Amino acid sequence: MHLILVSAQHHPSHGGIGAYVWELIHAAGEAGWRIELITRPSAMLRRAPLHAIHEITTQDMMPQFQKSVAALRRIERIRPYRYGLWSLAVAKKLMELDSHPDAIECVDCQAEGFVSITSAAVRERFESARFIVSAHMPMWLNEQLAGHNSSRFGRFIYHEWERTAVSRADGVIAPSKKLLERLGPHAKSIALPPPMRAVQACSPAGNPIIALIGAVQPQKGVHVWARSLNRVLLSRPKATAVLIGPDTPTAPDGLSMAAHVQRLIDPRCIDRFRWIGAQPHERVMQIVNDAALMVVPSAFESLSYAAAEAIMRGRPVVVSEQVGLAEHVPGVVTVPCDDADAMADAQLAVLADLSAAHDRALDLRAALIRACDPQRHMERRAQFINSVSPVARSAANGDELDAIERMTIFLRDIEQSIADPNDSASAELPETTLAA
């Protein structure tokens, strides 16, 4: 099987999508697949088992781009401009390749495959290839859960791109049925847990450390966890809690969410709570190895790589009922999202008997290894790809302008609008781009 994979993120240090791509690359290599990767430049890929790496550098990666940032923010187009640059560059790179893949897979983050999937030129160039969207957590869903105003910062633009890419793809792969149910209209799909190589399980935890890994924002449930800790830490004087992830300006006052979370912690136990910001993946895994418990209280997670990596290391986890991992690992402890008392009860139950919790975690680990076995994953992936029919060129795009041209016009209009310092009007999305 020959696959072209498109993802700017490609390593666990990039987050869940990066972890997925990294594991898929290795699973495909072991299965004898021919894999080409279109991505951003990175030294991390030097030892990856890839047939070819096609690196793309867009102008927003250049130092001189900083001169345009303020103007792009003023007209609220910096996000769609940057996402559009990358999506267009991907389509142009595909047009340059002398490859005949069975499938072209684009992750759903920031509509990376939007131009390629809706371009008649790209579809004609790869007329026998299936165009697949690998769905993880589209920004429209993530920002909807966060309660963001879709009319600000160009969100409605890239939200439409993401939805269009999913609806026009030949097939959709998602890590859980929960996500497929939320995606809206889409082509043939499969809920396929990601490939994961087994790693050695750790011994029972010696210290009662509770960890949460993720961006510090409301949809990750960090505020719910903070409230639960007031019971847990007061009930367990030796327990400590660590929050790992970048801060975001998503607190009720629009400022630091990390500061807001810390204000929620009872002063009597604040000295046993730490927020340590974003950390390298290796450091995060060291913390997981040392932890007694991992929590994922998210309002929604298509899977939760953080929880999966903890289970793989034999660590107990508590997740909200909206986390897709539970579909593949029956028996994982789930609690209602937004229920701080239930989250506290579940954590206290684990801390009450760490040895028994460790034994249960090893059973979950065995279930996870079976569900995410790389060989089984690649076999199911191949079956799915072979079951998908490529969309005919005429069905891909019936507009006069090709998607490559439409995106080029969109980006040029934004550039012209910021070139004139006297022009305070926002760059509007051309109708031909929305029509895709």
Explain what the structure shows.
It is a single chain. The protein is an alpha/beta fold and 436 residues long. It starts with a strand and ends with a helix. The longest helix has 19 residues, at 78-96. Strand 1 (2-6), helix 1 (16-30) and strand 2 form a beta-alpha-beta unit. The chain contains 18 helices and 13 strands. The strands form two sheets. Strands 3-2-1-4-5-6-7 form a seven-stranded parallel sheet. It is 44% helix and 13% strand.
Compile the SSE list and pairings:
Blueprint lengths: L1 E5 L9 H15 L3 E6 L12 E4 L10 H9 L3 H19 L6 E5 L6 H5 L1 H6 L4 E5 L4 H7 L9 H14 L2 E4 L2 H6 L5 E4 L17 E5 L8 H14 L4 E5 L12 H8 L8 E3 L5 H10 L2 E4 L8 H8 L4 E4 L12 E3 L4 H13 L1 H18 L2 H14 L5 H4 L6 H17 L11 H4 L2
Parallel strand pairs: 1-2, 1-4, 2-3, 4-5, 5-6, 6-7, 8-9, 8-11, 9-10, 11-12, 12-13
Helix pairs in contact: 1-15, 3-17, 9-10, 9-13
How much β-strand is present in the residues?
5-15%
Amino-to-carboxy terminus distance = 30 Å
Number of beta strands: 13
Question: Roughly what is the average pLDDT, rounded to an integer?
Answer: 91
- Quaternary state reads single chain
Task: Label this structure with key terms.
disordered C terminus, 6-stranded parallel sheet, 7-stranded parallel sheet, 436 residues, alpha/beta
Short description:
The chain is an alpha/beta fold and 436 residues long.
